[in-house]
Amino acid sequence: MLLKNHSKYSLECGTDEAGRGCLAGPVTAAAVILPKKFENTLLNDSKQLSEKKREILKPIIETQALTFGVAHIFQEEIDSINILNASILAMHKSIDSLAKKPEFIIVDGNKFKPYNGIPFETIIKGDGKYLSIAAASVLAKTHRDMYMNTIHKEYPMYNWKQNKGYPTKEHRAAIEKYGITKYHRKSFRLLPEQLKLDI
């Protein structure tokens, strides 16, 4: 059973990101403030849920949350500031777009930077412990997947519809065969060492 609140504050925001380990596309973060009475037995860490269940949960979270925000940080910026900074920036930007200012922020993982003087706590595997972080993980994942499905149409040979930009064997084989696109993260090791890419 996921916990409702970590702090004593009623406007507690959970935040999480998706797409950190991908070779292509943005890193996407979401921030969610849930009402005190929110309950959902299906909701869990997005990695534990099927795509179908995430799609069922997305509109429930978006209609029942007090407020939510989603932000993409794209590959050019990831290459410029590195993936950790880009992930934190995505979380900050998702919190920026909340309609209510949170009184406390709980963050999945162990890395975060102070945000506007609001107290925060990083929680390892927080997406499997707290409803608001789980909700943020579902929104980050579903919004990012929607984006990857869209750019899949432009470059179907990488099969982003299926792999969402993650380093699958198929994705790496396509990079080897076709080279890279404008959506690939040039600062990432796109191919194993023995297969060098001219960037």
From TrEMBL:
Keywords: Cytoplasm, Endonuclease, Hydrolase, Manganese, Metal-binding, Nuclease. It catalyses: Endonucleolytic cleavage to 5'-phosphomonoester. It is an enzyme of class 3 (hydrolase). Its EC number is 3.1.26.4. Residues 10-199 form the RNase H type-2 domain. Manganese or magnesium. Binds 1 divalent metal ion per monomer in the absence of substrate. May bind a second metal ion after substrate binding. CDD domains: RNase_HII_bacteria_HII_like. It is found in: Cytoplasm. Signal peptide: none annotated. Its main location: cytoplasm. GO terms for cellular component: cytoplasm; ribonuclease H2 complex. Belongs to the RNase HII family. Endonuclease that specifically degrades the RNA of RNA-DNA hybrids. This is Ribonuclease HII.
